[in-house]
């Protein structure tokens, strides 16, 4: 077993006491970090070089789970939101839906959810994590919206939005679709269904965007009781920094699936890491069991920052060839 490098973070960089902070994304050309609070429906922008006082907050009419840059423009970005894929103007906050997830039948009451709440699939679902492949396709996972359903079922789906605007259902029967990324040679894709406690590795065909679901193998399994892999970020050395929800840890895992570094946080529910240069920004959620883990509530729903001495792998941009 390799030696494990240890880090400890004592305090948040920004203590926001948020609901579910997620999706830290470095806007490199602006030297700005954007991230979201899914539960409280907020979008944040931060300039790390200027410090916490540079934080800007935008209230949203719907929740956003994940975002990505668009090739050829710095004014807009693409997102996976409550109802599907959309594009937002970074300066004005104006947004438009470019492809909804659900067809007409899924917008009708179907007996699911709670009476009077979440009676259609469209209402009881939302976007979660996502990423763009090297061909400019944007993969986004949809899951039950716990604000509506209070429970999780296996009606989640992994979607793929192609550059021409076409929408594809890549995999169904998922509970909480989470971190997705590709090997540096684009021959394999990593995908997380959090309740399984595993990150799986599958063959990937970049020219067609297809995944060899039947040839999957376990890449990483959370070794900590009660912990679940949430979001992850890949570094330039091909290693993964994985948020382990419920453990207060982010671990660095080498390409062989072995833990080689570990960051300890003062809150349990860490959700997603993202790189800005050699600095790793990590989001967290509100403590789910405050009656049992009171210590975790002081720094819950916060943003953390640590220099880990390695740069993140370049992030792909969505290719909006359809002109949406």
| Tally of alpha and pi helices | 3
What count of structural domains? Answer: 1
Helix content: under 10%
By CATH, the topology is: Neuraminidase
Task: Report the average pLDDT across residues.
Answer: 95
Radius of gyration: 18 Å
- Silhouette: globular
Order of helices and strands: EEEEEEEEEHEEHEEEEEEEEEEEEEHE
Strand content: over 45%
CATH class: Mainly Beta
Q: Any idea what the CATH superfamily is called?
A: TolB, C-terminal domain
Structural class: mainly beta
- Cα distance, first to last residue? 49 Å
Poorly predicted ranges: none
Concise synopsis of the structure shown:
This protein has 324 residues and is mainly beta. The chain has a single domain (5-100, 123-307), classed as Neuraminidase, CATH 2.120.10.30. It is 4% helix and 46% strand.
């Amino acid at each position: 077993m390799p030696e494990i490098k240890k880090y400890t973070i004592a305090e948040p960089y920004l203590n926001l006491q948020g609901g579910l902070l997620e999706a830290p994304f470095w806007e490199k050309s602006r030297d700005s970090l954007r991230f979201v609070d899914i539960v409280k429906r907020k979008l944040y922008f931060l300039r790390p070089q200027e410090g916490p006082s540079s934080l800007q907050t935008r209230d949203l009419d719907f929740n956003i789970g994940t975002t990505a840059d668009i090739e050829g423009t710095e004014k807009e970005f693409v997102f996976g939101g409550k109802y599907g894929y959309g594009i937002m103007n970074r300066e004005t906050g104006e947004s438009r839906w470019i492809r909804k997830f659900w067809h007409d039948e899924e917008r009708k009451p179907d007996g699911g959810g709670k009476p009077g709440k979440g009676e259609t699939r469209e209402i009881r679902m939302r976007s979660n994590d996502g990423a763009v492949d090297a061909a400019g396709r944007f993969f986004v996972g949809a899951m039950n919206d716990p604000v509506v359903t209070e429970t999780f079922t296996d009606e989640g789906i992994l979607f793929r939005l192609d550059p021409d605007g076409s929408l594809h259902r890549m995999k169904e029967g998922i509970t909480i679709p989470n971190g997705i990324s590709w090997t540096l040679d684009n021959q394999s894709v990593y995908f997380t269904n959090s309740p399984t406690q595993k990150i799986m590795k599958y063959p990937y065909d970049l020219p067609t965007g297809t995944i060899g679901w039947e040839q999957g193998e376990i890449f990483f399994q959370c070794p900590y009781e009660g912990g679940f892999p949430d979001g992850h970020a890949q570094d330039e050395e091909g290693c993964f920094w994985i948020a382990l929800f419920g453990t207060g840890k982010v671990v660095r895992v080498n390409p062989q699936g072995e833990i080689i570094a570990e960051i300890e946080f003062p809150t349990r529910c860490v959700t997603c890491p993202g790189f800005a240069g050699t600095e790793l920004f990590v989001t967290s959620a509100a403590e789910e069991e405050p009656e049992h883990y009171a210590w975790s509530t002081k720094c819950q729903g916060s943003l953390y920052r640590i220099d880990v001495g390695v740069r993140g792998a370049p992030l792909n941009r969505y290719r909006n060839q359809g002109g949406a």
